[in-house]
Each structure stands twice: as structure tokens, then as C-alpha cells.
Specification:
Layout (H helix, E strand, L loop, with lengths): L10 E6 L3 H12 L4 E7 L2 H11 L3 E5 L7 H10 L5 E6 L5 H9 L3 E4 L4 H13 L6 H11 L33 H11 L4 H8 L3 H15 L4 H10 L11
Parallel strand pairs: 1-2, 1-3, 3-4, 4-5
Helix pairs in contact: 2-3, 3-4, 7-9, 7-10, 8-9
Length: about 240
């Protein structure tokens, strides 16, 4: 799962935010890095959807709160269209319903808008590689609040219309297609472990772990490992109360 690359060998980034100053700041940071190119800017979600279709970026930095069409619905439209673009949700508040709504809609990560420049660049590169990892602390708290319903629930008509289930979802039949080892890998991914950490835990090579991850994503029809984490919690395969965190 190497970085997506266009013919120029550069990662193409689209900025979607209704604040021109934020777009300008992010453009200056990203274009100062080798191998990154900002190919367009959008000031609302509907424009972001159009520009993704026209420009075919590798990564979209998507604000959640925009006019015309919010970032959650724009993310849902882009991922639902079959676009290969990876989406990073930008939010002002950590661990709110917007962040999880973005992951539910198909985003690969979320960042706070005051992210440090180095972290922004690293996030773009990692998400483009398809190997984004959800940090264990964020995994536990975010999914505990918005999947299992142990924290404040988002209103059904709120952003992204996220409403935690009141009971565990029925076991997805697709899980039966996973081998016992693949199920172990999925559970480890859901703890926020990287490929290197999974390899160390199970005495495997990183190449073997990458093969398992690729097969898991294919069997479960998922875009990337972050979507696999969301899937594992939503289907009840793992729960945020796991004491291993």
C-alpha cells in the first residue's frame, strides 16, 4: 500500500475550507514540501465535490463546517462516487461528533485546525499511503462516545446525523470470511497499532502484516485501515472498554 502517485510523481492536494486565510496558510505549508502540490481550493462542500471530480486529487483537506454543503456530506458524496481521493477532516474541536461523523462518512483521518505544520505534512503523506493509524487514546474515547453510546450522543439531526446505536449491531456475515489470524489483525488494528507493532506482537514480518491488512480491506470492502477500525467498533467486533488500551 504505497503512496498514491500521479504521473508527475507528486501528491496532489485539494484544500476545502470557507476561510481564505486558513487555505492560504495550509497552501504555504504544503507547497514548501518536496513532492506535494496544492492543485485547487474550494470554499464550500459542493465546490469540493465538483473539484474532486475535475482535478482527481490524492488527498482532500476538508473542513467540517462549510456553507452550501457541509464537509461531512461532501465526504460522503466523494467516497460514495468511487473517488480514489483520501479525505482528512479538519475540525476545531477534538473528539466531537464532527470528527467521528467524518470517519463514518469515509474520511481516513481528522486533524485539528491548529495542527503543527510538520504534523499536517506527515498526515497528508501517511493518509495518501493508505496506512493511516488511529491513535489508541483517540480510538478509545471517540468511539466510546459515538459508537457505543457511553458518552454524550449527537442528535439524530445533527452534523452528519450521527446517532450511536442503542444495542450492538448484528454480526456482519462478512466477518465470517476472515481467517482467525485476520480477525486477530483487525482487532490489533482497532487498538491503533501500526504494522510494525502488530508484527512485533505476533512475531511476524511487516510484509506479512501488510498482506493480512490488504486482504482484510478487500474482504470487508473497506477503503483503508481507519475505515476498518470504525467497522470493527460498529459491528461490535471490539469494544472501547477493552482494558488493553
Amino acid at each position: 500500500m504505497g503512496e498514491q502517485m500521479n504521473e508527475s510523481g507528486r501528491l496532489r492536494v485539494l484544500l476545502a475550507d470557507d476561510q481564505p486565510l486558513l487555505r492560504m496558510g495550509f497552501r504555504l505549508i504544503l507547497e514548501g514540501e518536496d513532492g506535494l502540490e496544492v492543485v485547487g481550493e474550494a470554499s464550500d462542500g459542493a465546490d469540493a465535490v465538483r473539484q474532486v471530480r475535475r482535478l482527481d486529487p490524492d488527498v482532500v483537506l476538508m473542513d467540517v463546517r462549510m456553507p452550501t454543503l457541509d464537509g461531512i456530506e461532501a465526504t460522503r458524496a466523494i467516497t460514495g462516487s468511487g473517488s480514489r481521493a483520501r479525505i482528512i477532516i479538519l475540525t476545531t474541536f477534538d473528539l466531537d461528533e464532527y470528527a467521528f461523523a467524518g470517519l463514518q462518512a469515509g474520511a481516513s483521518a481528522f486533524l485539528l485546525k491548529d495542527v503543527a505544520p510538520a504534523e499536517l505534512v506527515q498526515a497528508v503523506r501517511v493518509v495518501a499511503s493508505g496506512d493511516a493509524v488511529v491513535a489508541p487514546r483517540v480510538t478509545q474515547r471517540l468511539l466510546d462516545m459515538y459508537v457505543r453510546g457511553t458518552g454524550p450522543a449527537a442528535a439524530p439531526d445533527g452534523p452528519g446525523r450521527v446517532a450511536p446505536p442503542v444495542a450492538p449491531a448484528p454480526r456482519d456475515p462478512l466477518l465470517e470470511d476472515l481467517t482467525p489470524r485476520e480477525t486477530e489483525m483487525l482487532e490489533a488494528m482497532s487498538e491503533g497499532l501500526s504494522n510494525a507493532e502488530i508484527a512485533h506482537r505476533y512475531f511476524l514480518s511487516e510484509a506479512t502484516v501488510k498482506t493480512h491488512v490488504r486482504r482484510i480491506l478487500t474482504k470487508l470492502h473497506l477503503r483503508d485501515r481507519v475505515q476498518a477500525v470504525v467497522y470493527a467498533y460498529e459491528t461490535g467486533l471490539v469494544t472501547p472498554s477493552n482494558p488493553d488500551y
